[in-house]
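Table 4 source record.
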Amino acid sequence: MFETFLRAVAALCAGLGLLYWIRLLGFYDGLTWRFDLMPVHWQVAAVCLAVLYPFAASGLWMLASWGPVIWFVCAVSETVMYAGFPELYGRRDLVLIVHALTVVVYAGFRLHRWAERRREEK
């Protein structure tokens, strides 16, 4: 189940990365959603996340140990953006909820694996 969970998060990361690329290329409806029209703070965030999300997706899909780390960097970045600076980036409560739930489920899987290893050692 843990592998399925990681691959589901990988699919989500791939989708989010694609959305950031769509925004950067100007295919997204909105007045300032083309790279040259974006404010600088959005340019920096969008470029970083457009690169990091697909990277996280590939690491999660391959079940590499660095995949969750890169996803965590993306999740913390978006949490800081949307919760810390809503006047600049707006509020995206759904994104914050999904990141929080993912952290809780991931932590639950890791705790379960840790407890199983301890039982096997005894």
